[in-house]
Amino acid sequence: MLLTTALRTSLVLLAFLHFVPSAKGQVKFERGLAEVILGQQNTGKHLVMHRTLPIGTLVGLRNPANGLTTTAKVVSKLPNIGANEKLILKISQTAYDALLASGKRFAIEIYPVAARKITHEVAAGETLYSIAKKYKITVAQIREWNGLTEDHPLSIGQKLKIAP
Question: What does the alpha-carbon distance between residue 108 and residue 53 come to, in Å, rounded to a whole number?
Fold first, then answer.
């Protein structure tokens, strides 16, 4: 696999997808062609944007050529792009490597994945920022998932939901 150094630091996949129905008529997964394009910055995070999935949704990515999979989380919404089914995934090099994709374009399947339930118990000295950093999420997400306001202090022993 030949990739330039710049390409290895931050990857963006642009996928053109169509729905593949399951036997019961429900959407099982989306299949399409992904194209690797150079990202603007290296965040070291799995960044996923999809206009039809809510923020926080965990999705699976599968390379149908070899059956290898990885996961990513929706962290932002796309601007209104019309009726087409474009999906932009900005993923870490590790997630890309897990798919063993070759070339600038490759087939990809995207499917829903059940999010695991994580509860964090606040320890002495922890802040919302330190907890968010530990789980690679934002302070705003912790506040949203737990109904916390700006003026709501943490308590030692308090239990926080880390996923919606």
Answer: 17
Of 51, 70, 52, residue with least CA distance to 60:
70
- Domain 119-161 is of which CATH architecture? Roll (3.10)
Task: Tell me the pTM.
Answer: 0.48
Query: What residue spans define the domains of the chain?
Result: 5-112, 119-161
Tokens (6 digits) for 80: 């209104």
pLDDT tens digits, residue range 73-98?
655 555 555 544 455 555 666 777 77
- CATH code of the domain made up of 5-112: 2.40.40
In DSSP terms, 58 is beta-bridged to 73
Listed residue (112, 98, 138) closest to 58, CA to CA: 112
| Rounded Cα gap, residues 55 and 31, in angstroms | 21
Asked if 106 and 13 touch (Cβ cutoff 8 Å), the reply is no
Residues, the chain, total?
A: 164
What one-letter code names the amino acid at 51?
A: R
